[in-house]
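Cross-check.
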Amino acid sequence: MTSSPSFLTTIAVRPEIASDRPQIASLLRRAFGGTDEATLVERLADEGYVVLSLVAHREGTVLGQILFSRLTIANENGQHDALALAPLAVDPDQQRQGIGTKLVLCALEDLQKLGHKRVIVLGHPEYYRRFGFSSDLARKLNCAFSGHEAFMALEWSTKSEPSELHGTLTYPPPFGVFT
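Predicted model, tokenized:
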């Protein structure tokens, strides 16, 4: 099913609020067919790692969610902040209508405005390349998820700033469920 412009205009994107959490947990279980992602999101929030969580909703019903949490890159220049995009979920009955794209675009714009410089994702290369993610940029990062095309990075920097996308990437402990 393709989305119509009028459908997407009925979808609003806003920061997650506490009362969204039960709907988000349910959405994640349906979208991923299990509890790992819902547990991850709950632990990231409870342990203070969440930097940004946006929901796409229509009339109070959460149809999608995107979450970014803190990461650290250690290299010869010191410690550098980065963010993990995980997870991105859209209600299975609402997929392929542009909701995920709307969430990614809104989130990346917000993150740039907040001054963040690096985002890491493990996901479908064809999908995330549309937003500027690159497996080549992530190639010099070492972590449990590195080493294949689905491990990608996005970096906003100026020509006068050196790239810090090299070294050891550390995910917060809640990601241990996936290693």
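The domain at 5-173 is CATH 3.40.630.30 (Aminopeptidase). The chain is about 30% helix and 30% strand. Passed to J.P. for a second look.
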